[in-house]
Amino acid sequence: MGSLSYTATVSLDGYVVDADGDFQWSGPDDEVFRFHVERMGPISHEILGRKTYELMRYWYADPDTEDWGPDEREFARRWRDISHIAVSTTLTADALEDPADRLMSSLEEAVLRRIVDEAPGEVEIFGPTTAAAAIRAGMVADFHFFVVPKVVGGGISALPDGVRLDLRLAERRLFGDTVYLHYRPAEGGGA
């Protein structure tokens, strides 16, 4: 049986994307990227919305040039080794990068529970819109936030409106100006 996690890089004011749709301000430095490579170890499934899926296509290729360093190559190897589920009403099956990738038009709670129950490791949801229903249902066991020192003033929030969570800090790390915060639901806490 697996577990469900949600990961987001957020501004100080809680957004993953600014009001213009830009997220370039959230790009990881080398140290944070290396940590992302390490934390992929227990992940067996990745659930992504359309935009995130399309963004992550980059990691399916292994360039023939020397443009990638060891961390990029290892991330790409690990990325290709996990199962991917794209949640989208506009993507088509022939648009998937890998034939093993799955496409779902929506992510129903019962289906997500089955995916997590059958997973041999951690199931990570990447993207606030895709994760919203699972967060509201209290299904997320681990919240991973990478907080960057930017205030963007609006956009897409990392957490859905109206959700109340009682969390406890499980881990924290400082990477230069970026703070990694890992939270778990407190006993009796949840959505």
UniProtKB/TrEMBL annotation:
InterPro entries: DHFR-like_dom_sf, RibDG_C. Gene3D superfamilies: Dihydrofolate Reductase, subunit A. The lineage of its organism: Bacteria, Bacillati, Actinomycetota, Actinomycetes, Mycobacteriales. SUPFAM superfamilies: Dihydrofolate reductase-like. Residues 6-176 form the Bacterial bifunctional deaminase-reductase C-terminal domain. Pfam families: RibD_C. This is Dihydrofolate reductase family protein. It comes from Dietzia aerolata.
